[in-house]
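yo

u said u wanted the structure for the complex thing, so here. seqs first:
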Amino acid sequence: MKARVHVMLKNGVLDPQGEAVRHALGAIGFDGVEGVRQGKVIELDLAEGTSEETVKEMCEKLLANTVIESYTVELS
Amino acid sequence: MKAAVLQFPGSNCDRDMAVALEQAGADVTVVWHKDAELPKVDLVAVPGGFSFGDYLRCGAIAAQSPVCKGLIDHVHAGGYALGVCNGFQVLTETRLLPGALMRNAGLKFVCKSVGLKVETTDSAFTSAYTQGQIIDIPVAHHDGNYFCDDETLARLQGEGQIAFTYTDNPNGARADIAGVLSDNRRVLGMMPHPERAVDADHGGTDGQALFRSLLDQLVSA
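structre next:
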């Protein structure tokens, strides 16, 4: 089974990289980009039967820093 | 004073830290990241560098290493710890210090000498400075933009846990914060490198007083 973890900076935490991407999009002619937030996607190959709780524990302990980041878990 | 300097794959200020501590008079042991047991020491120093290549987040993987379990036990037992640059990132990732260090607001690696204001002399790290003193210390980082939430910031300010602020903020850090102390004031994390400012031949000696403070306080303790 696979899990896909999305890690994003929390709302309210300034994302300097997202801002730079927004500026760059404007500079190459894409108007109307009002905001960009950049995060990461982590794909995990897991033993069958691994619970969502276990993946969340991985997020809490290592994959995300919950001081500044939020995460969502998709199992498939 | 006995001190341990931790060493991770990718640490690059470990030797400088050991030299700065030794010059101040400390007895220093360098400890490899796989050692779960720390020698009995007064101070654990977590040096700068790029532990584990800064993969995932700066300091995140080092924070899970066996030696950091020893570090956490040491701090929970009332021991002293100093984290500089990547070491500061490790201390926030272990949650021994509040907040987090994010990508510099200007997105560029910043490598220069900066002015710091000594915000408190009430710690074993800063007692040899004077309150409000402006010192020159080098910074060299890509992720030194200190962030904490409003509640944490109010607590840091209220309890005098901000050790140093930048006179000219190089990285977007919240409230110009360059270094913070733990609740019990025995853990200091800072982005600037005091260990790179202990020798006149290297451009300045404003970092010496930090190591002198530690030696004064921890020898007499």
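Chain A touches chain B at residues 9, 13-14, 16-17, 20, 61-63, 65, 67-68 (CB under 8 Å). The two ends of chain A are 6 Å apart (CA to CA).
cya
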